[in-house]
Amino acid sequence: xxxxxxxxxxxxxxxxxxxxxxxxxxWADFMAISIANIWxxxxxxxxxxxxxxxxFVLMFGLLPEYKWLHGYTTGRRGLKLxxxxxxxxxxxxSSRPKRISATTLNGFMEMILLRFEDSRESVRxxxxxxxxxxxxxxxxxxxxxxxxxxxxxGNLNFSDxxxxxxxxxxxxxxxxxxxxxxxxxxxxxxxxLTVGFLGLQVxxxxxxxxHELEDYLASHTRIATPDSER
Length: 230
Description:
- By secondary structure, this protein is mainly α.
- About 80% of the residues lie in helices and about 0% in strands.
- The chain is built from eight helices and two strands, in the order ααααβααααβ.
- The chain has helices spanning about 1-25, 25-35, 40-75, 85-90, 100-120, 120-155, 165-170, 170-220, and strands spanning about 100, 220.
- A two-stranded parallel ribbon has the order 1-2.
- Helix 3 packs antiparallel against helix 6 (about 120-155), helix 5 runs antiparallel to helix 8 (about 170-220) and helix 6 packs antiparallel against helix 8 (about 170-220).
């Protein structure tokens, strides 16, 4: 379990490092994309950074849970209770019963699964928010583009000899709208993929803890008959 747990953390660290190196290597292009719409793209980048930080907080928050589980399954005495996710189960298992019923096992595992899912809700929300912000920027940019072209065509005087110069000057607004649409979509999708990948590693680590505890408790579970449960 230790190898797989640290493997998930190492994948998160490696992925984040590659992302940082890529941004620094293409810094000029990244800044050009960001300033296309500094407000919306800044919100997307800030949300992505918050999501990355949250994923690492959730991952490091699993370390006390893992240490308690490792100590419990190896029979270590005097264990401190884990902080959040496994605390109710740890309190009920503090007496280290030799056998538990299948009903109790199912109740334990459902309780833990719900707590794991609740802890990942923030990551899911941030991922969906990044997708929404990317789509918002796309439609916002399209509105600016269409409005800019409509204003440009409406103000053109084709009988004027300087119509080409006027057209060239009037293209700035629709081109800015296209830049907003493409850059916000790129950053929104990239941010959602980044946070989604890191959230997947957190889920993988949680699943390792879940399955380890399930396997241990299953080996100490008795299948009770209806008569014995009365």
